[in-house]
Protein: Palmitoyltransferase
Amino acid sequence: MGSSPIRRLCHWGPIAVLCIIKLITWAMVHLIGMWWPPHESVGAALHAVMFLGLAATTLYFFLQSLLEGPGFVPLGWKPENEEDKEHLQFCSVCNSYKAPRSHHCRKCGYCVKKMDHHCPWINCCVGHANHRYFTLFLISAVLGCLHASIVLSICVYHAINRVWYMHKGTGQEPIVYLTLSTLLLTLLAVGMAVGVVLAVGALLYLQIRGILRNRTTIEEWIVEKAASRREEQGLQPFVFPYDLGWRNNLQLLLQGSKYDGLTWPLLEGCGPYDLTREQIAQKVEKRMRSRVYVVREQYGGSWLPLCRPRAMLAAPCSDEPRLKLQPGDRVRATRHRRHWLFGEKMVGEGRGPRGWFPSAIVSLADPMVDMFDNRSSEMFDNKSEDMFTNMRASGLYDGAGKTKPD
Structure:
């Protein structure tokens, strides 16, 4: 599950990050000693100290975000007020209710407080406890790699043109010597540094935008779907209850240790379960739009099914699991891509496994059975979803996460 710090560290993601940090730092230390030696001037010393400081903070905040972890909802957690249970979702894996803003991560194996996303580079989720460290890690990495990409590019240029500088230069240009092996490693370091600036820079932009709005990546999706859903149905616009203004939102991140990750300060006029009710309403409507399929051919869960060339060439670029199926199995599909469907295997009254499977191996179930399955609640995650489905079927649910008066 990757929940302990040691297990998080022993993974290809953190190991790759440590190797990239080491490679770029080695290249910089090796080359600035020839290009602008720190012992020659105060400016050169400050330049070296600046980069080494960025490298050190990058490593520190990376390890902090990994070792601290995102913060998990305690197993068996439930709200103090029994009446609040109907506004929360229940996690059957953790055997507890999901606190506001928390979500279950199947890779970590727990419900994560204020879950933003699961990051393979730190081999755990970004959540309430490590969001600050993760953001500072991104900032340090982008600044350090931007610095390194400029300096290393200049050094490579001087190394390639070393002979010209030695014979026709003014004699004041720095002479950089590179062997074939160090040249290849330096070019690799330049590529890594530029890649970090581009890729991590884009992620940093999204993170900062979310921080100033006090929204996680998951909550951005929920709010976007809420806006379109309510506009289509003619409902009141959804008000995100945790946006306190960019100054307060930024302060909330920097002082996150003051909060337990289970309760949060709210915008005036909003309730603690507004977002949860909206999320439940979206899940209800998603389930109502889902379709039940019957499996016609066996599928062993292969990521590249050779017997289905079209599906093999259009395999989803996702690490979500593939669903093993046998003829006669029934699957509830909620998403689709070209030649693929994503759904949940129907197994009695419990919740079955979920994953992708080729659309060519299934056929749509009988419409009347499909309609009944869409209205039934036997496959719902929790009692609150049962309640909302039954209320909608009886006309007491208005689609906005609230009930109509009697």
Q: What stands out?
A: Residues 374-397, 399-406 have pLDDT under 50 and may be disordered.
